[in-house]
TrEMBL record:
Gene Ontology cellular component list: cytosol
Domain MoaB/Mog: 182-319
UniProt record similarity statement: Belongs to the MoeA family.
Enzyme class: transferase
EC number(s) stated in the UniProt entry for this protein: 2.10.1.1
GO molecular function: metal ion binding; molybdopterin molybdotransferase activity
Pathway given in the UniProt record: Cofactor biosynthesis; molybdopterin biosynthesis
Protein name as annotated: Molybdopterin molybdenumtransferase
GO biological processes: Mo-molybdopterin cofactor biosynthetic process
Pfam families per UniProt: MoCF_biosynth, MoeA_C, MoeA_N
Lineage: Bacteria, Pseudomonadati, Campylobacterota, Epsilonproteobacteria, Campylobacterales
Record keywords, A-Z: Magnesium, Metal-binding, Molybdenum, Molybdenum cofactor biosynthesis, Transferase
Length: 415
């Protein structure tokens, strides 16, 4: 019996365990998922410092002539105390001298005199009126306070998270291992892109597609090859893939005479959670496990396989990754054109989202390869819908970037 999309996704998340852990240096963290909270060890800034090149002064000296005693640069460990009637020239980022009440930018003062003496250059400046206390001073801990939680378990590390970690001098972090995915196709008619094909044969486009997409989704990927339509050859490919977290196959899951994939996996104790989905295209999509290895068997038709990989394959990978935002999410938009379809089954429709509306691909079929190459998203249309009018609301699922959520949400367009 076929399951619904919602039931299929629930079974996927229930039966796709998080990966084990490892420790990585800061330089290698990008794209990994944290398996621990990160707490600040230091204040940022670590001391009160100047936000401008200017002069450290007292507020009560506003409008007065003051003498500049010396200059403090970023990195200096100055212990001078500022007194009324004086100013200390200071550079951006330099530690604020004791007694400083505000910073006046260089361009806001008037240079009155600059004389050379035996003690060096003596400079006097006139300060502007109405000085504001604490102006242009960056205070210790105003950005980050020691003890603040910076990042938390389940967050995927992005470039600006690296900034936070570096600011605290954190060199190594515990993360989940990336999911390891094995990919192979089956079919006597299939040849790889580096082989010659005859008139009765096809290039295997599914495996390179899944390989590239799994890499984009942050996985370690192994290409096992293309199996012939025989139990013996498929068995050899399965054995080569069982050390991975996820095996993705295409072809051989329908009911034809040469469809051996599910039977071949059965010899290894394959526990099937669903083998049909109420969806078009891709009804025979199958998901199960052999021990701790998840298995996704997709149909051989390229567009059907690619669309179902986007929906189910990506969901398995997100569940395995430990990412707290593991649920596919949607962007609400409107239809760019009218669209008619045959009602009766949930339908995946590829198309292009331009930021304002979604334009469905005009003509596509399960065996095509071009629609997804020119699409950047897809919609799932409810089985009760046979017509979507221009301007009607739809929910797109992107294929060119991540858009996920911490909570499961409705993915289906019903208008």
């Amino acid at each position: 019996m076929a399951v619904t999309i919602e039931e299929a996704l629930e079974l996927i998340y229930k039966n796709s365990p998080e990966k084990s852990l490892k420790i990585l240096p800061l330089e290698q963290l990008l794209g990994y998922v944290l398996c621990e909270d990160i707490v600040a060890k230091h204040n940022l800034p670590p001391y009160d410092n100047s936000a401008m090149d200017g002069y450290a002064v007292k507020v009560e000296d506003g409008g007065k002539l003051v003498k500049v005693t010396h200059t403090v640069f970023a990195g200096d460990s100055s212990k001078e105390v500022l007194e009324c009637g004086f100013a200390i020239k200071i550079m951006t980022g330099a530690k604020i001298p004791f007694g400083t009440e505000c910073i006046v930018p260089i361009e806001d003062v008037n240079l009155v005199s600059s004389n050379e003496s035996s003690k060096g250059a003596e400079v006097s400046i006139t300060l502007p009126h109405n000085l504001q206390k604490n102006k242009h001073i960056r205070f210790c801990g105003e950005d980050i306070k020691s003890g603040d939680k910076l990042l938390h378990k389940g967050q995927r590390v992005h470039a600006h998270h690296i900034t936070l970690l570096a600011s605290q001098g954190i060199s190594h972090v515990r993360v989940y291992k990336k999911p390891k995915v094995a990919i192979f196709a089956s079919g006597n008619e299939l040849k790889m892109h580096f082989e010659n094909v005859h008139s009765h044969q096809l290039y295997n486009t599914n495996s390179p597609t899944f390989y590239s997409r799994a890499l984009e989704l942050g996985c370690e990927v192994e290409f096992i090859g293309t199996a012939h339509d025989s139990l013996e050859d498929i068995h050899l490919h399965i054995k080569s893939a069982l050390d991975c977290d996820l095996i993705v196959t295409s072809g051989g899951v329908s009911v034809g005479d040469a469809d051996f994939t599910k039977e071949a996996f059965g010899a290894f104790g394959y526990e099937i959670f669903f083998d049909k989905v109420e969806i078009k295209p891709g009804k025979p999509t199958t998901f199960g496990k052999i021990g701790n290895t998840c298995v996704l068997n997709l149909p051989g038709n390229p567009l059907a396989a690619a669309l179902n990989f986007e929906l189910f394959g990506q969901s398995i990978i997100l569940a395995l990754s430990g990412d707290e935002s593991k649920y596919l999410s949607t962007i609400d938009t409107k239809m760019a054109t009218d669209y008619r379809l045959k009602a009766g089954r949930r339908t995946l429709v590829p198309g292009f989202f331009d930021g304002n509306s979604f334009a469905p691909y005009e003509k596509f079929a399960p065996g095509m390869i071009s629609p997804l190459a020119t699409s950047n998203s897809y919609i799932i249309i409810d089985e009760s819908v046979g017509f979507l009018a221009k301007e009607s609301s739809v929910k797109i699922i992107p294929t060119r970037f991540y858009f996920t959520s911490k909570e499961s949400s409705d993915l289906v367009s019903t208008q």
